[in-house]
Amino acid sequence: MQHLYEIDVRVPMRDGVALAANVWRPAEGTAPTLLVRLPYGKDRLGTASEILPNLLTLLEAGYALVMQDCRGTNRSEGEFVPHMADRADGEDTVAWIAEQPWSDGTVGMYGASYLGMVQWETAVTGAPALKAIAPSLTSIDNYEAPWYGPGGALSLSLVTLWNAMMYAADAQRSLALGKDTLSQLQQLGQAALFPEPLNEVLPTAEVPVLAAYGRWWDDWMAHPSHDGYWDAMELTPELKNVTVPALNIGGWYDLYIGQTLRTYVTARQKAGTEEAREGQRLVIGPWDHISTGGAYPDRSFGPLAGAQMMGLTDLYVKFFDRWLRGDTTALDGVAPVKIFVMGIDQWRDEREWPLPDTQWTDFHLTSTGHANTADGAGVLTTEAPSDAGHETYLYDPRRPVPSAGGASMPTTPGFCGPVDQRTVAAREDVLCFATPVLEEAVEVTGPVSLTLYVSSSAVDTDFTAKLVDVFPDGRAINLCDGILRTRYRRGLATEELMEPGTVYEITVDMTGTSNVFLPGHRIRVDVSSSNFPRYDRNTNTGGVIAHESEEQMIPAINHIHHGPNHPSRLILPVIDRKDQS
């Protein structure tokens, strides 16, 4: 099929604002259309993640393509405020496409991150011409991911980076219109290129270059709880309006991994039609938010780990052929769930998530002395301990545990992905609980959580948890992690401070993973109270953290209790299949 290419086509919205789109349309006849909506500039195709399908492959497969700047970005009119207009604009754009003479009336959407959020925001409107979406590395709850987290801590390094980047782009637009100054643009540009110093500024709400620009930064800082501000953006209650299948794609080291897994499960249960529920699909690779190659300095997952090597573009085409073209055989032989199992470094097809043969197994935390550092006496055991005890460490927010790998942004080496934890685990404020050396392989695939019995000298503090695969050569590679701000132990919408010295049961959501711990390895969980600057530091005062200075910070003496009356435990989804090697 031959295509015509049109630049900056004006697409009218219901309020009269025109959004700019680049359009690849058939030279003759009609075609199904794939829509991408993005706030990063439609003309910069190089910004697209490797997780997206190859553009030429989609065109060769006979699809028209519309790539549109979100409201108030790049060449589109209006004002950009994250998520505020994307439902209506998405719905209007889908309707506009369906009315074009080159359209066959069917529309699909794809894209990663914010480009995935706008797909769900469009899908919940029930737009009639929308037939399928393929959201990757994304969320339907913007509080839980990406701006805060499922434990209530601010995703600091991401929030500073993303806002500096978006404000710089906005200032560039404003400068062209004579509204902003060159000095302000230069400051924001510098912040976008080198965001790390922004993370050190206290109070967080007053980071000079971001607070000065205002906009939604002030709103995000003013709403640290999952209150009505965030509820208005959350799509979970509206999944009942979704009538289209979704190809959900994520990465074990992507900052959205918890939301990707949760969205798939929830949509399977609550989407508005049987076709939408049964049409949900899930692909998870050993990837982060940018890289889908599966190779990192401290851990490589082999040549087949990459998104393109596993045929992701072909899967996109098959998925859209099924739901836009009506080819009922397009997905024959394609499993609804495809996951990369780390450890054995293999792709595996599954029918469901979580896996139906999951054995939820408690690994109890105990010690034969003190669990501080990886060289301490912390023990992880499936046998319930008979003796009571507790572990103690000092959390000083002026000396936080540095972030080392994980589902983080930015995706710089050492900060994101699988990273050797030996340096971090040598700190006295990190507790390490490990199994003996394994004699047989243990597969862990599914959601992971840590239940702790804790007390503190403070009225509020954080607890972090990190699942680690300890190799025979001493490398300790992180798999998944989580954090809980204890004021949110009963829910993200309500703050409840602690009584110092009182023991509380809490649960840390560690998202999920798929890993085979091989013979000779050890399973370990690391516990502490900070992961900075991935998350902001808890000041331990019980006050509004974003508005507190370094002088207001106080240290906290934190305790992890274990034993018969305080069964602190790591809950792992064990898969017992004897064919692992």
What can be said about this structure in brief?
This protein is of the alpha+beta class and 581 residues long. It contains twelve helices and 23 strands. A hairpin with a 4-residue loop joins β11 and β12 (346-350).
What would you note in describing this structure?
It contains 12 helices and 23 strands. The radius of gyration is 24 Å and the shape is globular. The model has no long low-confidence stretch (mean pLDDT about 95). Helix content is about 20%, strand content about 30%. The protein is an alpha+beta fold and about 575 residues long. The longest helix is centred in the first third of the chain and has 21 residues, at about 155-175.
Topology summary:
Elements: E1 3-12, E2 18-26, E3 31-38, H1 55-60, E4 64-69, H2 86-99, E5 103-112, H3 114-123, E6 130-136, H4 143-147, H5 156-176, H6 182-193, H7 208-213, H8 216-222, H9 228-231, E7 247-251, H10 257-270, H11 274-278, E8 281-285, E9 295-296, E10 299-300, H12 312-324, E11 337-341, E12 346-350, E13 359-367, E14 378-381, E15 389-395, E16 431-434, E17 442-456, E18 462-470, E19 476-485, E20 504-517, E21 522-528, E22 556-562, E23 569-575
Parallel strand pairs: 3-4, 3-5, 5-6, 7-8, 8-11
Antiparallel strand pairs: 1-2, 2-4, 9-10, 11-12, 13-14, 13-23, 15-22, 16-21, 17-20, 17-22, 17-23, 18-19, 18-21
Helix pairs in contact: 2-3, 5-6
